[in-house]
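SAMPLE LOG
Freezer: B-3
Tube label: C17
Construct: single chain, 86 aa
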Amino acid sequence: MAEMGPESSVVTVPEFAAIDTEAVVEVIDLGAWEGRLPKAQLALTLLTVAALRNGLISVDALLAAGAGPFAADNENGISAGLALAG
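STRUCTURE (predicted):
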């Protein structure tokens, strides 16, 4: 991340906010999500926030990509990301 410039962005949680980078650091308050968010879903939640805020993928595409044997868990992580993306 040290090589990232100010045109880049990083989405993270408060515990990792002190990142040495020139990128824009967006800190996500997981406490704003009222549901349960297991650690296993944290990366998907942050990916959802980053993808939506940067216009990289649609909600439908995210949900479709989450299909499979862990669909319910994936949907929870994506739903948290949707709520936290604002």
